[in-house]
User: Which sequence fits this backbone?
């Protein structure tokens, strides 16, 4: 199957970008189809499910997320995450985000998966990691960067609390749901 981009331009360029393209691509039944599509250019991101072994707790962030206000109060629980910057490796960015948001240092990261968040409209891929820490690994305050106007709280929840409440009652964020499902399927002995 083949495609050809006939025309592509940036139609919005601010904190995020939106591109628009005219494309011809093959059809499964034969022949081609010409379409016009937009893409929210988000870039790649990282996210880390952190399990603190000595407290038997997952480490979550809680912060205000403007796009969620129409279906909730705006504050959501999620695993630490952030956008990659030019020159970053995914593992380096994961460590930076965890330090900035929660104040923990990570020693070893396990890549769970890399996936598109919403491939019908966004270019964003997430590198999803798992890490284990102890309370001794909290070496900084955390809370986010003042320069980015972040205000992030650290929330600890045990695996048994998550099981008791149900994953869907704990988090409404896709990357966090995927990470927790992975944990309960692969780390049940913890």
Assistant:
């Amino acid at each position: 199957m083949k495609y050809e981009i006939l025309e592509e331009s940036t139609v919005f360029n601010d904190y995020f970008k939106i591109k628009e393209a005219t494309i011809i691509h093959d059809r499964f039944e034969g022949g081609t189809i010409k379409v016009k599509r937009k893409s929210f250019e988000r870039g790649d991101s990282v996210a880390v499910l952190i399990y603190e072994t000595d407290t038997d707790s997952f480490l979550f962030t809680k912060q205000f997320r403007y796009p969620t206000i129409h279906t909730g109060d705006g504050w959501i629980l999620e695993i630490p995450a952030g956008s990659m910057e030019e020159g970053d490796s995914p593992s380096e960015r994961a460590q930076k985000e965890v330090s900035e948001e929660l104040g923990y240092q990570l020693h070893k990261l396990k890549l769970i998966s890399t996936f598109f968040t919403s491939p019908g409209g966004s270019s964003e891929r997430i590198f999803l990691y798992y890490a284990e820490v102890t309370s001794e690994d909290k070496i900084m305050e955390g809370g986010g960067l003042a320069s980015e106007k972040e205000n992030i709280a650290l929330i600890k929840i045990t695996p048994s609390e998550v099981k008791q409440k149900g994953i869907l009652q704990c988090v409404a964020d896709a990357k966090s749901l995927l990470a927790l499902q992975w944990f309960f399927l692969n780390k049940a002995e913890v």
The domain at 45-186 is CATH 3.90.79.10 (Nucleoside Triphosphate Pyrophosphohydrolase).
